[in-house]
Amino acid sequence: MRVALALVLCGLLAAHGTRRKSLSPDGAIAACVIGLLTFTNGNWGVSSTLLVFYLSSSRLTKYGHDRKVKLEDGHAEGGQRDAIQVFSNGFTGAALSALYIVTCSDSVRSFMEEVFQGKRLLADCDGQWRTMLLVAYVSHYACCNADTWSSELGILAKRPPRLITAPWRSVPPGTNGGVTLMGLSASLGGGLAVGATMALSFLAQSAFTPSIVATESGSQWSMVLFWVAVGGVTGVFGSVLDSVFGATLQMSLYDGDRKKVVDARKLRGRKKSDLRHISGVDVLDNNQVNFLSSLVTAVAAGMLYQLYVLSANT
Questions:
Q1: Which residues of the chain have pLDDT under 50?
Q2: Do residues 147 and 187 lie in contact, with contact meaning Cβ atoms separated by under 8 Å?
Q3: Can you say whether residue 81 is alpha, beta or left, with left for phi > 0 and alpha for psi between -120 and 50 degrees?
Q4: Are strands 162-163 and 276-279 parallel, antiparallel or unpaired?
């Protein structure tokens, strides 16, 4: 039943994305794969977090589209996301959701024991392990959402951005690693939105199926504050980390004739010598930076939570 509902929801979102031109055809297929691994998770917060990220990022990508096209080279028509973009932002989250399903779903564990003739291949899924996976999951999407909000709103700021690795330098809008106060504020909002989504989902699910939701001891308000704090902190951290990677490992060039920042890997026949170098070296592209920053944020948050639990128990 859960798989059938997941397939229906994936189909609806893919159709919505292609109709609104927020997803390319291959992007819609990739979104279905990510969605299926997410919506089959029994935790409401896991599904809700993906929905909030998808819907808010799609809307903000379209916001100020005409101005973004003038400032940024390669801004997709209608803000469409292709399969590579979808996987770079969703693969880690989908992998964490799949790991949660395999290790914490009673039905999956029972099925595996039947297949392997009663052998227990997995340790018990205790609250600490469950919460660590969710912390990593929330941190991943907090990073992705914060970076998207920061990028899509920060480029529209009236004041020129500053290079995050050299804040005394003003750089053109659209420069990888360029930050503004508006963008940093947006990153905080994006992270808080993800954290609040997880917290509210926990409250809603616990009201209907309290046995499914494993939370730390304490009041519901402390749980809400915990998830909101996780989202806010990891959102800003991930967005800043993304900017640092962009300023150092992505090459930003400026086309004086077209008056816009161009991608060093998409020069369309022009030579790099014809353009002004702003920052960075050509090691990663934007999708690789997004994947790396969200992965590092998720792993770091999960490890920090484990260290916190260990220190609290000693």
A1: 121, 213-217
A2: yes
A3: beta
A4: unpaired
**Alpha helix ranges (H) inside 175-272:** 181-208, 220-249
Is residue 240 exposed (0-12), middle (13-18) or buried (19+ Cβ within 10 Å)? buried
What is the Rg, in whole angstroms, of the alpha carbon atoms belonging to the chain? 21
Token readout for 259 is 């008056």
Could you tell me the two tokens for 34?
A: 């990510």
**Are the C-beta atoms of residues 171 and 163 closer than 8 Å to each other?**
yes
Sequence-ordered strand ranges (E) for the chain:
162-163, 166-170, 178-179, 252-255, 260-263, 276-279
Answer positive or negative: Cα dihedral of 270, 273, 278, 280: positive
First CA to last CA distance, the chain: 43
Is residue 166 helix, strand or coil? strand
Q: How distant is the alpha carbon of residue 90 from its chain centre?
A: 7
What string of H, E and C letters represents the secondary structure of 132-148? HHHHHHHHHHHHHHHHH
The residues that bridge with 252 in the sheet, in sequence order, are 263, 279
Picking from 273, 193, 279, the residue whose alpha carbon sits closest to that of residue 236 is 193
Q: Where are the domains of the chain?
A: 2-312
pLDDT value, residue 115: 55
pTM of model > 0.85 = yes
Long-range contacts of 223-230 (CB under 8 A, 24+ apart): 223/199, 224/199, 224/200, 226/199, 227/138, 227/195, 227/196, 227/198, 227/199, 227/202, 228/192, 228/195, 228/196, 228/199, 229/195, 230/135, 230/138, 230/139, 230/142, 230/195, 230/198, 230/301
Distance of alpha carbon 206 from its chain centroid, rounded?
25
